[in-house]
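ok so I'm stuck.
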Amino acid sequence: MPATYFSRTYDEALALLIEARDYVLVAKDLDRSQQAPVQRLLHDRELLRITARMTHVMAWLLCQRAAHSGEIPTEALREPLYRLGGAPVCATNDSDALRGLAPLPRSLSQRSLDLYR
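replied:
not stuck anymore, here's the structure
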């Protein structure tokens, strides 16, 4: 994997992770009392999905970096331990839930899905 490609992907993932973290920190303080309980649940589920995606992506990228720097054998990347995990939760979006989200969490969800894919 060329260093430039990896570096750009890693930087993109890290920036998105930081943006998602910042949103989660702000979201916990929002007054959502006017939202229906189902809408609050869908919002929180999407935030968890974003967090799961970003966790899996960052772990995978760090494994890639470790293999390419010689810290682990490149062949090890074929093992399940080093593969991108979380597909049952991370590989899709819930379009119904996304429609009810504000623009920023909707964008975070879509961008994290694009990066995950």
